[in-house]
């Protein structure tokens, strides 16, 4: 019976430990370093997304600029058969 009581005590102690926040377990300076790293990673990700968006816009602009007359004519909504 004593072993069962110890297991129950260990389980409740584990549950109490799980309730502790990560911030409470770690040292304060380590938490600040992790937050700073998270912020820098987030900024890098946003910068990369902006660069990718700018690159796509430039590619689309160049594609539009370099279209042939045939491509422009095919994209036109006018019915050219009316004017023949």
Identify the overall geometry.
elongated
Low-confidence stretches: none
Supply Rg: 32 Å
Total beta strands = 0
> Helical segment tally?
4
- Average pLDDT, rounded to a whole number, is 79
Profile the largest sheet: none
Kindly state the percentage of residues in helix. Answer: over 70%
* Helix and strand composition category: mainly alpha
Secondary-structure element string: HHHH
Strand content: under 5%
Verbal overview:
This protein is mainly α and 84 residues long. The protein has a domain at 20-76. It is built from 4 helices and no strands. It is elongated, with a radius of gyration of 32 Å. The mean pLDDT is 79.
What is the strand and helix layout of this fold?
Blueprint: H1 2-19, H2 22-25, H3 28-65, H4 69-75
Biased composition (Basic and acidic residues): 36-70
Protein name: YqkE family protein
InterPro entries: DUF3886
Short description:
The protein is built from four helices and no strands. With about 80 residues, it is mainly alpha-helical.
Task: Jot down its keywords.
84 residues, 0% strand
